[in-house]
Every structure is written in C-alpha cells, then in structure tokens.
Design goal:
The complex is a heterodimer of chains A (106) and B (258). By secondary structure, chain A is mainly β. Chain A has no helices and eight strands. Chain B has two domains: 87 residues, Cytochrome c-like domain (Cytochrome Bc1 Complex, Chain D, domain 2, Orthogonal Bundle); 115 residues, Cytochrome Bc1 Complex, Chain D, domain 2 (Orthogonal Bundle), CATH 1.10.760. Classes of the chains: A mainly beta (106), B mainly alpha (258).
C-alpha cells in the first residue's frame, strides 16, 4: 500500500474544532505528458479521497489531474464522539489506500 | 590584585564579544532561511513534509534482507537512529573497501554490492533516495563535518575549480550566482547560497525527492551547458567542495525546497 502520513489529534474536547492533515505518496500522473518514447503516459491519479468519523462521512474530495504528486489535504471537523477516523483514497488502475486513527473525545 | 581582576573581566568581555562577532561574521545560511513561512512550516512538520513519505520507504528497506548474502542494513548497522547519527554530515568520504571517495548514495550502493551481494540501486531510484533520506534524517541538526583526508583535499580543489568555471551558453559559473549574488532574484526565485544542508530534498518543482547530484545537473542545464553524465567525477568533486564550504552548518535534511 502507498505510504501515508496522517496528523490528527489523539484527544479532543467535545465540540472542539480539530484540524486533520493527510499526506499520501502518489505520482498523480496527469495523462497529458509524453514519455521518453513519445507516447502519452496513461493517466494515473487519485480520484477520490474520503474521511469518515465512526463511519459517518466528514470530508470528501474529488481530485483532478491538476493536483500535484503526493497530495496533501488539510481539513477541520467538530469533535463529537470518541472513535475512529478512517481515510480512504481511491483512483486509477484500481488504486486504493486506507488508513485510520483513533481519537478520544472528552 | 584589583587591576588584575579588572584585566580578567576585560579579557572575558573581549573574548565574549569576539566570539559573538565571529558568530555574526558567519553569514552563511541554509536555503531553508530563504523560503517563505509556508514552506518552512511544511519542512518542519514531519507529517506535512513529503520527503518523509520516502523516509518511510527507506526505513522499511533498512531492515529488509536483500541479495545473495541475505543481509539487511540493520544486520550490520543495527538501529539507524544510533549508528547513522551524523553519518550523512560526513560524506563524501573515502570508502574503506576501494580507497576511493564516494558520496552517501555511492556508499549505500557499495554496501549493496559488497556486503549484501545485491545489485546496486539505480541512480535517483525511489529505493536509493528513500535509504539516503532515512540516513540523512539521522543527521538532522548535526554540523556538517567533512573528514580531513588528503584524497578529499584534491577532490575539493577540483570541485572549487569547477565551481568557479564559467560554462554554458549563458557563460555562468556556480559562483556567479551562489557566491556573488545570493539573496537576489533569478526570475521569481531567490538565489540561495547553495549549501547542501538538506539533501536529499523534496523539490516542489520536481514533485519528487532528488539528490544533490540532480540539483547540480539542474543548475548546469540552467546555464545551458551540457550536463555531465550521472556517473561523472565532476559531481563528486562539486559535492565534496560544497560540503567543505558548508562545514559546521547544521543539517536540515530531508529538506523541502521550491
């Protein structure tokens, strides 16, 4: 699986706004560039990124070929309950990467 | 007695201010200082610095057995956090086996071929960059300390010569930018002093991790000169000179650069 780096707080107060950052290794090949043989390198991008908090979707992002390699996404959410924040990236050529972190809300 | 004490105090004040003046006199700084606050923050945060993704790969490779010898890096060097501390700050150095100077990537490949009996990793491959980034990370904050070696002295002299040699259609030497005009603008970019403190770097323009060699090639092409092939001795000479030029500066690898 692709390398992933996620930065989310382990603990939060109920109702607190927390910042969640996710970085993933991916070439994000646009599909517009010719390779050394002159042929177009097929598009290979992450198309979809979603984050769920205890199964409930809290963030979704649709990615395009204009996004740079190794995309870094930062978003915020309101800490409502303790549980699991799960991340899923999916894209071309059957690419799937998943990661999850636990958070305790008091 | 009193005058002696006064003299001692004066001497202390004098040496103190001298040390301060010397510290202030060193105007060298890492390319990190030439970046804006957003990029500095990106480099400082290990979960935002994309080079750390490659470090992850390098860390995994460190304990992965390879080659006919069936050995991993960890089998000889144990924990990189201990054994590799300050190592990247000392390269290029003379390799024990061959008696020839090598850079860090070259050293890793010597270990591959000699001790692991595995094929050398390709130049600028994710594997080699990952390993060198993982090793370089262990020198973060350590002062650059090139070894005092006669062989290296000759190489550095050669590197210094290349550094000052004008070349390419633009007829520029490295020194024209990095010695004479650092801090000024080249198009939209700030010209750095050119100290190799953060290699391998994650360069946003490359959207990838790259070695000092790749950076040097980039500059050579920028002067519209023909770049030396990847295995050319010129790079090693330049790398050796640049490390000597940055002696004592703190490593900040793996760096992020625009």
């Amino acid at each position: 699986m692709a390398n992933v780096l996620v930065n989310a707080p382990r603990t939060a107060k109920k109702g607190q706004v927390v910042e969640i950052k996710a970085l993933i290794m991916h070439v994000m090949e646009t599909g517009y560039r010719p390779g050394t043989n002159g042929r177009i390198i097929p598009r290979n991008i992450i198309q979809d990124f979603t984050a769920t908090w205890n199964g409930r979707e809290i963030f979704r992002m649709r990615m395009s070929p204009a996004i740079a390699a190794n995309p870094f996404v930062s978003f915020s959410a309101v800490a409502s309950e303790s549980g699991i924040i799960a991340f899923r990236w999916s894209g071309d050529a059957g690419f799937v990467a998943e990661h999850q972190v636990a958070i305790t809300v008091t | 007695m009193r005058s002696l004490r006064l003299a001692a105090v004066l001497l202390a004040v004098f040496t103190g201010s001298l040390a301060l003046a010397l510290a202030q006199g060193d105007s060298r700084h890492s390319g990190y200082q030439d970046m804006g606050p957003a990029l500095r923050k990106m480099q400082d945060d290990d979960t935002a610095n994309p080079a750390m993704l490659f470090v992850q790969s390098g860390e995994a490779l460190w304990s992965q057995k390879a080659g006919a010898a069936g050995k991993s890096c960890a089998d000889c060097h144990q924990h990189a956090t201990v054994s590799m501390k300050g190592v990247a700050a000392r390269y290029p150095a003379v390799a024990g086996e061959t008696g020839e100077p090598v850079d860090l990537e070259g050293r890793i490949n010597l270990c591959r071929t000699n001790h692991q009996q595995a094929p050398a990793l390709a130049t600028e491959s994710d594997e080699l960059l990952g390993l060198s980034a993982y090793v370089a990370l262990q020198s973060r904050g350590q002062p650059i300390a090139p070894p005092n070696d006669v062989q290296l002295a000759a190489l550095r002299a050669k590197g210094a010569e290349i550094f000052r040699q004008r070349q390419g259609q633009l007829n520029l030497s490295c020194a024209n930018c990095h010695d004479d005009n650092p801090g000024k603008k080249l198009a939209g970019a700030t010209i750095p002093q050119g100290h190799p403190t953060g290699y391998p770097i994650y360069r946003l323009e490359w959207q990838a991790l790259g070695s000092l060699k790749r950076r040097l090639r980039n500059c050579v092409v920028g002067t519209r000169a023909e770049a030396w092939p990847f295995d050319a001795a010129e790079y090693l000479a330049l790398e050796s000179y640049l490390m000597e030029r940055a002696r004592g500066m703190a490593m900040d690898a793996p760096g992020v650069r625009p």
